[in-house]
Amino acid sequence: MSSVTFVASVAVLLVASAIIFPSDGITEDILAAICSQTQNQETCEAILESDPRTGSADLPLLSLISLELLSKQADENHSSFVQFRENSTDLDLKRTFGNCVKGYSDMQGKIKVALELSRKRQYKRINELGQMIKLAYSCENGLPSNSTTSGITETMLLTSQTAVYVNQFLITYFG
């Protein structure tokens, strides 16, 4: 097969797949419908759009994207709290950071379950996401008011809300 024939064949396959499996991706209206339910619509949209797949994603992929972003944030926060715990010389603060490490470990496990359910398109069974918000608040509320962790906690809360509302939208959409 010549290279021209090969290129032509690939082009025909790409055009055919676009016709047979059209994907308009997630529209701004869908993002707005999902994110208007959150504490901060612009931040929710920015979180989802931070993944380059969002623009061409269908709703099932958007669920996975939201959960992958949540997993990434939980992993980053977990690592931060491990470092805070290791670097702290105050025993009470070290214990509190240890509680946060445990909370974020719990989150990581729940997110893995949610990712697996999303892969199986079992959106109605993804019911632990609200726990992410409670665990993040629990961690932050245990820390002194002058703690520098509020920024990463806020990011976790907003990312959690985003995943919650994406998956609630899917439950409504798919019935």
Low-confidence runs (pLDDT<50, min 5 residues)? 3-22
| Relative helix content | over 70%
Q: Tell me the fraction of residues in β-strands, as a range.
A: under 5%
Number of helices: 7
Give the overall silhouette: elongated
Mean pLDDT: 87
Descriptive account of the structure:
75% of the residues lie in helices and 0% in strands. It has helices at 3-20, 28-35, 41-49, 59-87, 91-119, 129-141, 150-174. Helix 4 packs antiparallel against helix 7 (150-174). It starts with a helix and ends with a helix. The longest helix is centred in the middle third of the chain and has 29 residues, at 59-87. The protein is built from seven helices and no strands. With 175 residues, the protein is mainly α.
Question: What's the SSE blueprint?
Answer:
Blueprint: H1 3-20, H2 28-35, H3 41-49, H4 59-87, H5 91-119, H6 129-141, H7 150-174
Helix pairs in contact: 2-3, 3-7, 4-5, 4-7, 5-6, 6-7
Signal peptide: 1-25
Organism: Salix suchowensis
Pfam families: PMEI
Features:
single chain, 175 residues, mainly alpha, 7 helices, 75% helix, disordered N terminus, Pectinesterase_inhib_dom, disulfide bond, signal, Invertase/methylesterase_inhib
